[in-house]
Predict the structure.
Amino acid sequence: MKFLITNITDKLITDALRYMRVPSSIHDEELIKTVKNAFERLETFIQPRCVWARFPVIRFDGGIEVAGAYIYSEDIERLTSRSRDCILLAATLGLEVDRQITISQQKNMLDGLALDACASVRIDAFIDQFMKSEIAPELHEGEFMTSRFSPGYGDLNLSVIEDIIMILNAHKRIGLSVTRSMMMTPVKSVTAITGLAYKSRN
């Protein structure tokens, strides 16, 4: 499954404009056209890939332990408060996206800005698609996924990126790595934690 988008929705365009810091009150047809064209370009060279795995959650005061990694975060502790297990995932759009953004920025700054913003929206859309079609069918009866939480959100330290990449062997499996300054390569990549909880019975 390639997870390509054939319909550029208003929501995708609105989200991209938000990344570009365009006020919602501004409605510029040429700008919207630029954004739409950027989304269409992305579909010609992205290589979306995702790896994930399910792990038991072991709690301690101030965080959780997952696959031998101690994650100190009260936000994650709350997110998984009703979870016996959690999912770690890592996803990327591929290195070609980084290259094309750089080329676009050198030729036309607005086109480059739009492509960069659209890629940020696109990685989230890809993960949403992947979780719905690939992960959700693997859940147990009555089980559901909490919202996903990425390193850098709230009090979840960026260093957890390294833990997730190592645990999932994401470097070998999808070519994902992280620099000393905690920047992921490819840039348009995401790591995240999602709790698995059960629906309460009335």
About this structure: The helical segments are 10-19, 29-45, 74-79, 95-107, 109-135, 160-168, 170-174. DSSP finds seven helices and nine strands in the chain. Residues 109-135 form the longest helix (27 residues). The mean pLDDT is 94.
